[in-house]
Amino acid sequence: MAVIYSYPRATPTASDLIIGTLLSDESGENPTKSFSISDIIGLVPAAGTGGTVTSVGLTNTDGKLVITNSPITTSGNMSINLYTTGGTPSSTTFYRGDGQWATPPNTTPILYDITSVTNGPNTDIVLTPSEGASSIVKLIPGNDISIVTSSNEITIASSAVGEIGTSTFIGVDNTNPLIPIVSLSATGTPDITTYLRGDNTWATIAAGGTMSSWDLAADSGTPETVSEAETVTIAGGTGITTDVAATNTVTITNSGVTSAIAGTNVSVSAATGDVTISAPDAIVNTDDTYASYASVTNIITLSAAEYAAIGTPDPNTLYIAI
Q: Which helix (H) or strand (E) holds 293?
């Protein structure tokens, strides 16, 4: 058998045959068979590993390209060219938006000579172009600003802040006079637990804080100012006693009248709350509105001898001699 590459070459057609091994033979012997190229092509889509391209084309959406021979359905070449409306491309022309090769305007550079002159409190910067008329840029100083020009050098100075001084709590770092740094000058460490104390120190404050003084007032008398070192005493009065407990509690006790006891011709009802005191044997003489004699408020029974021994009787007492 000759070497395969020694056979003469030819252009294949769909009806030509190719020698191959039939692996799907039921005998399992894998016999050698011939297959047509058309049958092989028919198997490619069915196998899902490829397909046949029947048309290839290009489109242009902005109108700046010219495409010819598109699409290609069998074989051939497509041509892509830049759309132009005229002009010649060169090192001095550029593609314009309307499709024209043209020279851009103002491509010749304009050079300026810059000078400065004093104009009263202002300074004029004169721009003299290589062609055309000159133009002026005017510098106008504001408040506390001065502008001086000399030999085309312009100096702008500020006379507003000449110096930044310090105070008791504020420090200033003038190492760079143009960028001074202002900060608190207190000692200690500022954090969430410290506060700036009056002696310019970052210090902690005792829990609960402190009170230097407060005013004590009552229903009567002159209010008193209580300082930090003083003690306020709640004193008892007549029939009243006070007592301080360990729980910061002051107990006020009535030590005067502890009970109401009935006496002669007087009765007492209710032991607590509203206590009623009455005299059932007392004379009620509210209807005596006459002014000719004194009203009777007392009645006494006695003998004639006892009455005679009284001498001057009480005008408000009714004496009954028996």
A: none
Nearest-angstrom CA–CA distance, 165 and 171: 8
Alpha-carbon span 130 to 114, nearest angstrom = 11
Is the distance from CB of 264 to CB of 281 less than 8 angstroms? no
Q: Which amino acid is at 262?
A: A
Residue 154 has a CB neighbour count (10 Å cut-off) of 13
d(CA 271, CA 118): 109
Chain mean position to CA 79: 64
Specify the range with the lowest mean pLDDT, choosing from 113-117, 175-179, 213-217. 175-179
Residue 108 burial (CB count, 10 A): 7
pLDDT of residue 272: 65
Token reading at 136? 């002026």
Q: Residue 198 class from Cβ within 10 Å (0-12 exposed, 13-18 middle, 19+ buried)?
A: exposed
Scan for tokens 């004639």, then name that residue: 304
Q: Name the residue among 305, 302, 265, 306 with its Cα closest to residue 318.
A: 302
SS3 content of the chain, % helix, strand, coil (to 5): 5, 35, 60
Question: Do 275 and 258 form a contact (C-beta atoms < 8 A)?
Answer: no
pLDDT in tens, 182-212: 788 888 888 988 888 888 888 888 766 667 7
Q: How far is residue 240 from each of residues 113, 232, 233, 244, 252, measured CA to CA in Å? A: 105, 17, 14, 14, 7
pLDDT of 122 above 80: yes
Q: What is the pTM of this model?
A: 0.25
**Of residues 303, 297, 304, the one with CA closest to residue 318:** 297
Handedness of CA 264, 266, 267, 272 (dihedral sign): negative
